[in-house]
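Narrative of accomplishments. A recurring question from our advisory board has been how the design workflow behaves on a single, concrete structure rather than in aggregate. To address it, we present the structure tokens for one chain from the evaluation set, followed by the sequence designed for it. No filtering or post-editing was applied between the two.
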């Protein structure tokens, strides 16, 4: 446990002031994450505009936009199963380059089913790059640096939520919906270039399969019997369920009465992610001080405290609530991701794939279920449902037994 505490991301950043190479490494890892998942949530900032353009209800457009989570959930499993045969550098670069194709095609504004299908393809390529990168971090960095590397990656994920939404809103407002997707396709291509350059020196070749390698089913079954890993998978499911539920349907709340926010202003609202960019790298310090279980409880509790603010009719209170939800859920995600990386003593790629499957499945189910709740019962019922899911995550955190796994 002491080793984990010493490898906290906060310590990485603190010591980074005296180690430029470490700072550059963290920044590169964060930028890689940013360019991998910037498409995932950027489109949420233009959900109301897309719903109007396609003339469909909010829930239908939300499911189509968040169909990426379907692709990410199942591709994460597939990539994890065969990751021992895939070169990390080539795999990440190819996935990001291929990601640019469906992203650009979305700019043609196809029919809604085709739109959803292209979003699924985006999710598949994002998950491929994401899973291979997580496996790479676990393989290439010693235990002391691994926690910092994982949290740097999650910090890039957080930044993509903020910058992606702002950029999406700006492009759609000034150049139109089609140019929005073309702009993101260029970012995907930039990610492929970064992977080619940045991962060149230390990327290992695919691991040679042993003569009697366990079957994929046997590996997954072994991970699912691991109490700590199983709890982490469930926590990941709940975290994205809550996060995507809030930040999908709050868009429709903010463009309606009494707020009446326009498209560009809706993008600016997502400056609420700025505190998360600053606090997520401190996840390691939080774990060092409180432990994984109490760190998760503190993070989930912070998110829960923000929920009542979302029901108030004043924008300042809603924004405050969004800040608390974002900070809490991103801290919880960083802690849960680190738990998976540390608890899986072998077949880390398979463990990462299972975690991502649970995580993004939570986002998919959250979008669909909360969409129906929102349409039938309103925003208050939606927030209540999210509170219950956060409570479930807190219960799962009680089952963490990381000490026995390290």
């Amino acid at each position: 446990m002491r080793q984990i505490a010493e490898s906290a991301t906060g310590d990485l950043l603190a010591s980074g002031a005296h180690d430029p190479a470490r700072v550059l490494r963290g920044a590169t890892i964060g930028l890689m994450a940013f360019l991998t998942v910037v498409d995932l949530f950027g489109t949420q900032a233009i959900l109301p505009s897309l719903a109007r353009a396609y003339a469909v209800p909010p829930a239908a457009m939300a499911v189509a936009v968040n169909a990426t989570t379907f692709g990410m959930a199942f591709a994460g499993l597939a990539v994890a199963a065969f990751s021992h045969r895939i070169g990390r550098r080539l795999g990440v670069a190819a996935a990001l380059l291929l990601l640019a194709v469906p992203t650009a095609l979305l700019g043609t504004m196809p029919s809604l089913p085709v739109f959803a299908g292209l979003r699924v393809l985006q999710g598949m390529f994002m998950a491929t790059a994401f899973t291979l990168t997580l496996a790479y971090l676990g393989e290439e960095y010693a235990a002391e640096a691994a926690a910092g590397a994982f949290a740097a990656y999650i910090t890039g994920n957080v930044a993509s939520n903020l910058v992606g939404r702002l950029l999406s809103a700006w492009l759609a407002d000034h150049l139109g919906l089609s140019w929005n997707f073309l702009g993101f396709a260029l970012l995907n291509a930039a990610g492929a270039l970064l992977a080619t350059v940045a991962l060149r020196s230390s990327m290992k070749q695919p691991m040679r399969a042993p003569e009697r390698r366990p079957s994929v089913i046997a590996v997954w079954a072994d991970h699912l019997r691991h109490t700590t890993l199983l709890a982490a998978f469930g926590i990941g499911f709940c975290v994205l369920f809550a996060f995507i539920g809030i930040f999908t349907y709050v868009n429709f709340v903010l463009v309606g009465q009494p707020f009446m926010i326009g498209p560009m202003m809706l993008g600016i609202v997502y400056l609420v992610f700025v505190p998360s960019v600053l606090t997520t790298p401190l996840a390691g310090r939080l774990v060092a001080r409180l432990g994984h279980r109490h760190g998760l409880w503190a993070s989930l509790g912070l998110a829960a405290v923000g929920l009542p603010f979302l029901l108030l009719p004043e924008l300042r209170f809603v924004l405050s609530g969004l800040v608390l939800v974002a900070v809490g859920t991103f801290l919880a995600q960083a802690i849960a991701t680190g738990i998976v990386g540390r608890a899986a003593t072998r077949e880390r790629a398979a463990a990462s794939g299972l975690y991502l499957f649970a995580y993004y499945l939570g986002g998919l189910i959250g979008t669909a279920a909360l969409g129906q709740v929102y349409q039938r019962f309103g925003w208050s019922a939606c927030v209540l449902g999210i509170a219950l899911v956060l409570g479930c995550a807190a219960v799962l955190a009680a089952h963490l037994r990381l000490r026995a796994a390290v």
